[in-house]
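Q: Hand in one record:
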Amino acid sequence: MKTQILFDNDGVLVDTEHWYYTASAEVLASKGFLLTPERYREIMIHGQSAFLIAEESGVPLSTTDQWRAKRNELYQHYLRTEDIAIPGVKEVLAELSGKYRMGIVTSALRCDFDLIHASRGITDCMEFVLCSGEYPRAKPYPDPYLLGLEKLGGEKHQTIIVEDSERGLRSAVAAGIECVIVHNRFTENHDFSAATHRIGKLEELLELLK
């Protein structure tokens, strides 16, 4: 029986992945580099940076670090101005709250996460949030979810992970924890063959957990 849930954030609880890609692509385009959605998905599966395409062409890391800073500013602009809510998420979490111990394990920067959730109410249902830099190695390594499990204090067989990307799924599998993939149009072409379950929207998790 499942008693605790670890949620990814981007693409599962909020619709932000398109805007992170858009911000990255726009900054790279201003420097003469084309970042297609297909190449971006390939890069992100392995937990690498979108600016890899420039670094492969010889652009030094010191320069792409400056570009990343510009991307981060643009991304935060989109977070403030675009509708990133996923319908039904708050209602699902409210129903799960009190029945399950829950936490968020995300690759987002803490500053971005706090901006996203400043007045959303989603984190009210969570015991903790783990962001980028708060675990030894990022997804697809198992470290983020193993630390999340440690914070919940339960066993692997009592836990289920909710993800939307192949990188996140790899992290869950490496951690030895069952994983549910929720559909996200931005990651729909990822390889989810190792997932325990696949659902079309988060509301289906309620029936799945019965």
